[in-house]
């Protein structure tokens, strides 16, 4: 009897040891510095901050945070609520509504091709770096209305975030600085360079006659003495690969200002009424337009420049020659110009799964 008990005990022990041997210990979460491959077509190489290079895990963390509603006071709102992928990462409402049901003061800006911006952020340039801009909406009472301390505490309660901060930055400790760096990485990874116009330049697409004529109008300078050769003169402010100049300008919207724009950030009255010159890429889907969203259509935008601008001491000098006369565009000119502007829409950007909500 004792012999059978001894054998049974021995077999049980063998089974226990065997089953333990089959267990695979969980892999320790480690810092992963694998570089993120940024595709940007024919664009010039961006100047990514040396202290925050793009990594696969950093971009992944930033994407998680961009869509994380816990960063808002009541858990109802994420960065993506006002920067929607289908609208090229802006809002289709004139003013975004925050967690307290209050509207923002300016129209939400698009956040694609941010890696090519080097002259401050927000409409008035009050944020020096993109990482500074990233934290602004979280704390803004009109937007997410949360303290950074509370945001950190809520993320720290989630093991998936502690794991991802370890992968991205080599520490489970979650800080507001690390949050800002991750968001900066993700926003720098959002690149728009695959529009019909880009494919046309690469010999992969053909423009219609109307689009070609609009292209010519876009780049041709205003010439009141030779109306047949005069263009829309857009490229002075909306030039280069990203169709903007990374500057601040008063584009003749107002003579008297309720919003002082760049002056709010610099304190210089010479900056009154100046706002960030935005990219015209994806302009077809980023309405309403201007810092206050006053125009709902591209037709209204072109009519603004074509019908005479408001006088102002800070009006951009490039606009002064046509301030009183407008651009003298015909109805066909305007249609052709809009046809060209629509070739700047990057449909791949609007649906790219690499930029979508990772929590779904």
Characterise this structure.
By secondary structure, the protein is mostly helical. The chain has 2 domains: 56-192 and 349-355, Cytochrome Bc1 Complex, Chain D, domain 2 (Orthogonal Bundle), CATH 1.10.760.10; 196-344, Cytochrome c-like domain (Cytochrome Bc1 Complex, Chain D, domain 2). 35% of the residues lie in helices and 1% in strands. It contains 13 helices and 2 strands. A two-stranded antiparallel sheet has the order 1-2. Helix 2 crosses helix 7 (176-189) and helix 4 packs across helix 7 (176-189). The chain is globular. Residues 1-21 have low confidence and may be disordered.
Structural features:
single chain, disordered N terminus, 13 helices, Cytochrome Bc1 Complex, Chain D, domain 2, mainly alpha
């Amino acid at each position: 009897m004792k012999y059978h008990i001894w054998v049974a005990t021995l077999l049980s022990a063998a089974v226990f040891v065997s089953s333990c041997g089959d267990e695979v210990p969980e892999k320790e979460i480690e810092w992963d510095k694998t570089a993120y491959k940024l595709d940007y077509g024919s664009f010039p190489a961006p100047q990514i901050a040396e202290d925050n290079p793009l990594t696969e895990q950093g971009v992944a963390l930033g994407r998680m945070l961009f869509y994380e509603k816990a960063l808002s006071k009541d858990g109802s709102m994420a960065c993506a609520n006002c920067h929607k992928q289908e609208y090229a990462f802006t809002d289709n409402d004139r003013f975004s509504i925050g967690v307290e049901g209050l509207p923002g003061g300016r129209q939400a800006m698009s956040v694609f091709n941010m890696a090519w911006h080097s002259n401050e952020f927000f409409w008035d340039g009050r944020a020096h770096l993109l990482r500074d801009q990233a934290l602004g909406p979280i704390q803004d009472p009109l937007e997410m209305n949360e303290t950074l301390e509370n945001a950190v505490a809520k993320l720290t309660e989630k093991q998936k975030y502690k794991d991802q901060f370890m992968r991205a930055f080599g520490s489970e400790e979650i800080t507001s600085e690390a949050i800002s760096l991750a968001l900066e990485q993700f926003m720098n990874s959002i690149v728009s360079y695959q529009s019909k116009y880009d494919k046309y330049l690469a010999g992969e697409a053909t423009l219609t006659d109307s689009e070609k004529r609009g292209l010519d109008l876009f780049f041709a300078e205003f010439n009141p003495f030779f109306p047949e050769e005069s263009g829309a003169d857009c490229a002075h402010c909306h030039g280069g690969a990203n169709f903007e100049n990374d500057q601040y300008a008063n584009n003749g919207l107002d003579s008297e200002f309720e919003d002082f724009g760049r002056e709010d950030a610099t304190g210089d009255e010479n900056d009154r009424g100046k706002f960030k010159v935005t990219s015209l890429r994806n302009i077809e889907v980023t309405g309403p337009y201007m810092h206050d969203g006053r125009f709902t259509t591209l037709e209204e935008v072109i009519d603004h420049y074509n019908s005479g601008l408001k006088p102002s001491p800070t009006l951009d000098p490039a606009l002064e020659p046509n301030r009183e006369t407008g651009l003298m565009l015909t109805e066909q000119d305007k249609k052709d110009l809009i046809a060209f502007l629509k070739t700047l829409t990057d449909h791949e950007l609007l649906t790219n799964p690499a930029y979508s909500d990772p929590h779904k």
